[in-house]
């Protein structure tokens, strides 16, 4: 995994170009989707609706996870009675 991350960091411009190309392909493909049987008005008339919906849902999930993490789920080892430099099993 570290080799993959190092490779992607070394070729950052190429990775960005490939990501932008894939985004353009997927965005263009939405114009070829048959929306005749769409369930709602929004699905039928708003281009890229499900893309925007998915992005918004992901942003909400990430925001909720960050809020939960900062509200006390992510705590240091000193909360559990352990020293930060040692594991709980060592004490």
Rg for CA atoms: 22 Å
Secondary structure tally: strands: 0
Average pLDDT taken over every residue: 84
Sequence of secondary-structure elements: HHHH
What's the number of helices?
4
Q: How much helix is in the residues?
A: 55-70%
Structural class: mainly alpha
Shape from CA axes? flat
Termini separation = 33 Å
Percent strand equals under 5%
Low-confidence stretches: none
Question: Number of folding domains?
Answer: 1
Largest sheet: none
What do you see in this structure?
The protein has one domain. The chain is built from four helices and no strands. The model has no long low-confidence stretch (mean pLDDT 84).
